[in-house]
Design brief:
globular, alpha+beta
Length: about 200
């Protein structure tokens, strides 16, 4: 009986160890080369006034859609973007523009968005707008979001959303999408391609 318990315990420990090992393996960056109908120009509000994608014609842009109260995925994606920008040589990093579009305008004020975005990099601008303008951008980029009520939480609600970094070339065309779980070095390499 003792031997059986020992074998069951050992099997359990081995299964946990294998699961931890698998979870810690680097995930391949999700990348899709695109063309055609996804993407396009848009205009939303920043703390300093209206900002359009076309304002950055001639420089690569990385767009991310999320919200500041996101507990983990959005901060991870913006941290990866900020680090990738910092990893580039200075003359190249200055050419990259980050745009963080919030789908939570009720909580994400323009002032809050500005300070939140700047925490990750001064080259990331926080943007939002009215629901119709936000939904237009979300639809243009093939993203999604939905509000989820949290009755037992002080936050009241969370937002489920897609989580991709949209890489936009100097002409304003969507060049690729990469997962938020890509590494800063992988993203930096994508940015180098956009800069060449």
């Amino acid at each position: 009986m003792k031997a059986i318990r020992y074998l069951i315990g050992l099997s359990f420990v081995l299964v946990i160890a294998v699961l931890i090992y698998i979870q810690q393996q680097p995930k391949p960056a999700e990348q899709r080369i695109l063309g055609g109908s996804i993407g396009g120009d848009f205009t939303l509000m920043s703390m300093d006034g209206p900002v359009s994608l076309s304002d950055f014609h001639g420089q690569p842009v990385v767009l991310y859609i999320g919200y500041t109260y996101c507990p983990d995925i959005c901060p991870m994606a913006l941290a990866v973007l900020g680090q990738a920008i910092r990893n580039l040589p200075e003359e190249k990093s200055e050419q990259i523009q980050g745009l963080f579009v919030s789908v939570d305008p009720e909580r994400d004020t323009l002032e809050h968005l500005a300070s939140y975005s700047a925490f990750f990099s001064p080259q990331i601008i926080g943007l939002t707008g009215d629901r119709a303008d936000i939904d237009k951008v979300v639809q243009q980029y093939g993203a999604f979001y939905r509000r989820v009520e949290m009755r037992d939480s002080a936050m009241e609600y969370a937002i489920d959303h897609s989580s991709r970094l949209y890489l936009i070339d100097r002409e304003g065309n969507l060049a690729a999408m990469v997962s938020h779980s890509t590494s800063p070095d992988q993203l930096m390499n994508h940015l180098k391609e956009l800069l060449n």
